[in-house]
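Dear support,

I submitted the protein below through the web form. The confirmation email said the job was done, but the results page showed an empty box. After a refresh the structure appeared. I'm attaching both so you can tell me whether what I see now is the final result or a partial one.
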Amino acid sequence: MQKITQVENRLYLVPLAQPLGDASHDKHTHFELVMCIVTTGDGLTGYGYTYTGGIGGTAIVELLNKEITPALLGQDAACIEAIWSNLRRKLHYVGRGGIDAFAISAVDIALWDIRCKRAGLPLWKMVGGANGRARAYAGGIDLDFSQEELLDNIRGYLRQGHTAVKIKLGKDTVAEDAARVAAVRELIGPDRTLMVDANYKWTAENALRVCRAIAPYRPLWIEEPVDPDDPSGYSRVAQHAGIAVAGGENFHSVYEFENMMDSACIDYPQPDASNVGGITAWLKVAALAYARHQPVSTHGMQELHVSLLSGVCNSGWLEVHSFPIDQYTTHPLQVRDGYAYPPEESGTGVCFRFDLLEPYRLR
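What the results page shows now:
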């Protein structure tokens, strides 16, 4: 029997080793981990989750407890597409890409965990088995770092096996941003890959000024140069910057990705399975990218995304994020010579160390 018989939702507030800042958010001191644990009548349990930068977790858990859990009980856990679609319709009017996308993501990931366990397959094979590994880069939240702290951080990434790195931009002046990019390029050399991320701080005109200043240092992409609600600004940057444009961590539905990929000319779509609607939605975005002859990349959640990118044929770049969720799992991410490798056990491969998380549990 695959009927859902039990759903448990949890909230953890997990401290970061040091405060981390970018151009648009409050300083991060913690991240919230929201967990959805689904059990079926035949005894299989799936662990799904989402995360935030420190705000909104309580609302997500309340939505899971009050609205979603009653809708899940008694449903066939094998019918993931039906459950995903029904939850979207149920919550669309009051949610539509808000906290509902985070909550649905947690449920969907739990159901995929059950599906893979029932099949006896790791997630990367379940979604296609195309590659068996994913190109990785280290994505720092490092805007508040001095230049020497920034360079020390990059040296640490290189020691960990990374051959690609991303830094935050959004200082007070173009010259400051350009100096940081120049220093990192000098440190990593001409052959390693460099990306930059503005966390949607700029107008299109300001973004173009920065892009002109940093172009000599050959960044692969400029990420979130303008507000995610400004497709015309994205389009201007894409047309005139001379640098590829990436974005997606703030697009919370398949249709938002479709619209932004068509109207905003995004070169590197970056769906996040924790906030776009789970694995089901992530695969739909990957298919949209494939149809447009584009690679699909990711934002955060490296411990899960490594399996998704390892499975699809248009795999792009895996972001290894500064929120270290995988420090609380039994299989911390393995990076060797610029590639990350997915877990081989059945399920999503994300098995939490609840003994380590328990001190941070709020609900």
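Response: this is the final, complete result; the empty box was a page-load delay. Residues 99-119 form the longest helix (21 residues).
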